[in-house]
Design brief:
- There is one protein chain.
- The chain is of the alpha/beta class.
- The chain has 2 domains: 131 residues, Cobalamin-binding domain (Rossmann fold); 269 residues, Alpha-Beta Horseshoe (pyruvate-formate lyase- activating enzyme).
- 32% of the residues lie in helices and 18% in strands.
- It is built from 13 helices and 17 strands.
- The strands form 4 sheets. It has a 7-stranded mixed beta sheet, covered by helices on one side. It has a 6-stranded parallel beta sheet with strand order 2-1-3-4-5-6. The protein has a two-stranded antiparallel sheet with strand order 9-10.
- Helix 5 packs parallel to helix 6 and helix 7 runs parallel beside helix 9.
- The longest helix has 20 residues.
- The chain binds cobalamin and iron/sulfur cluster.
- The site of cobalamin has 44 residues, from helix 1, strand 3, strand 4, helix 3 and helix 4.
Length: 435
């Protein structure tokens, strides 16, 4: 017997190991919730991030859906068991990056695995309820305008810690997907084509959020915000009059100096890139499809345009050795990005490294997924591989030295010096330091 209107509770797991466990609202669940609601279901979002387990409260629902990242696998499973205790007749669904990569290896504490984006999948699961099908997959339409905007009204958006320029910021997506194929990237197949919202649809949402929550800072979480220049131009034309400040991700090898001037003119404050390494050998091994020279260029162009430059680096990709680390240090000294964030390499399931470890000289991959974090609260990442060229101890020593070097550099006050030159944009150095 199927019911037409169900109650669905969507849970976001905490990740207590994180530097900051309540940084951003769970955007994926907000999208899923909005679509379920459009189809007549009653939906709650229960974001457990940053909440101690003794204070978790789970309600009664017909269907529970939980996001799962590799390092939250065990905690998401624990949440699933708690949901089942509350309503043994309910269906428990796991979705997100980790189950999408290895749907066949997810615990039987979950009745259903949602592979890929969950908007259509959860509506199908509710339609079929209480069927016993184990795996659901259904791609989204390429025109994302047909989907409702994230259901921010189901959470308190102001309870998150993300800031930009010292003010609270909300995350927004204007497109999904990326045509590149970096070998460490966990983006699944459905992300290889780019799906887009129209600039008008994006501008309307920003205007709404600005009005509703008095928020004027936004983080465009698109993997490739700057990739399509014609679209970028139309988007910026509509964003500029809104008077917001924002951060976006650029792409070296694809961007131009002119793009950054246009971004700045439309309110962009920070531009971030996956710079990854100062060694061309490492960039090639990671299949970054760019060069050290082009990485230098984008950082310089951002500075020339008056943008804050934020560079992400990956430490310990197979092939890394003292010489490549040295090249990265020299790169940082030469280019002097305003902000940097260093993640340890993690061989997430679904990546090319995970699928073909021997191609990268990996002799063993450890699968204790709880340790699959890129960096945790103590400022270090984990090491989950063994390689031909570097022992675990050698890597540990290298990581300690590199992180200590970069922390000292931070403390030397480059950023503080820079902030002094930005009237009205204080406290950048206090920005919450994660992705
Ligand atoms: C922004 C981001 C963050 C933000 C915000 C996360 C959040 N609160 O949503 C921050 C910085 C906090 C973050 C943290 C971490 N992240 Co993160 N993050 C991303 C990033 C860049 C974008 C995510 C996003 O907003 N996408 C857009 C929304 C719409 O999509 P979505 O969240 O994926 O949700 C969709 C689907 O996944 C699915 N889905 C999600 N949940 C569910 C649940 C059900 C039931 C169903 C059916 C479907 C479903 O449907 C959603 C809607 O389409 C992705 C890379 C990427 N491009 O996807 C990495 C990524 C998801 N993060 C990753 C990781 C590892 C982490 C950390 C563990 C990092 C660390 N500390 O080491 C933490 C832990 C997360 C936590 N518990 O908070 C990995 C996951 C790899 C893996 N296999 O697990 C990714 C893929 C990046 C990578 N390294 O390759 N992250
Ligand atoms: S790391 Fe960035 S550029 Fe590379 S494939 Fe992933 S999203 Fe695309």
């Amino acid at each position: 017997m199927s019911k037409s209107s169900l109650t669905v509770e969507l849970l976001h797991p905490p990740h207590p190991e994180s530097i900051e466990d309540r940084l951003d609202a769970p955007l994926g669940l907000l999208y899923i919730a909005a679509n379920l609601r459009k189809h007549g279901h009653e939906v709650r979002i229960n974001d457990l991030s940053g909440i101690p387990q003794s204070e978790w409260e789970i309600g009664m629902a017909d269907i529970y859906g939980t996001t799962m990242y590799a390092p939250t696998m065990a905690i998401s499973e624990q949440i699933a068991r708690m949901c089942k205790e509350i309503n043994p007749a309910s269906k428990i669904v796991a979705g997100g990056a980790h189950p999408t990569a290895i749907p066949g290896e997810i615990s039987s504490a979950f009745d259903i695995i949602g592979v890929g984006e969950g908007e259509e999948i959860m509506v199908d699961i509710a339609r079929d309820y209480p069927d016993n099908k184990r795996v659901y997959r259904k791609p989204l339409e390429e025109d994302l305008d047909i989907y409702p905007n994230p259901a921010y009204d189901l959470i308190d958006p102001l309870s998150y810690k993300r800031t930009l320029g010292g003010e609270l910021a909300l995350t927004t997506l204007t497109s999904r997907g990326c045509p590149y194929q970096c070998s460490f990237c966990g983006l699944a197949d459905h992300h290889k084509t780019i799906k887009r919202r129209s600039p008008e649809n994006v501008a309307e949402e920003i205007e709404f959020l600005k009005e509703r929550y008095s928020i004027t800072k936004f983080i465009f979480q698109d993997d490739t915000f700057t990739i399509n220049k014609k679209r970028l131009g139309s988007m910026l034309d509509l964003i500029r009059p809104l008077g917001i400040g924002f951060k976006a991700h650029g792409r070296s090898g694809n961007d131009t100096a002119g793009d950054y001037l246009r971004l700045r003119d439309a309110g962009c404050e920070t531009i971030a890139w996956g710079i990854e390494s100062g060694s061309q050998k490492m960039l090639d091994l990671m299949n970054k499809q760019t060069t050290v020279r082009k990485n230098e260029e984008v950082i310089q162009w951002a500075k020339d345009a008056g943008l804050i430059s934020r560079a992400f680096f990956v430490l310990g990709f197979p092939g890394e050795d003292p010489q490549t680390i040295e090249e990265t240090q020299r790169f940082i000294e030469r280019t002097d990005p305003d902000q940097y964030f260093v993640s340890n390499f993690v061989p997430y399931p679904g990546t090319d490294v995970w699928n073909n470890p021997e191609k990268y000289g990996i002799t063993r991959i450890h699968t204790d997924f709880e340790k699959y974090y890129q960096i945790n609260g103590n400022g270090f990442g984990s090491r989950n591989i063994e390689t031909e060229n570097l022992s675990g101890d050698e890597f540990g020593e290298m990581e300690r030295e590199f992180r200590s070097w970069i922390n000292q550099r931070r403390q030397r006050g480059k950023l503080q010096e820079y902030e002094g030159k930005l009237p009205g944009r204080k406290r950048l150095s206090e920005e919450v330091e994660e992705i």
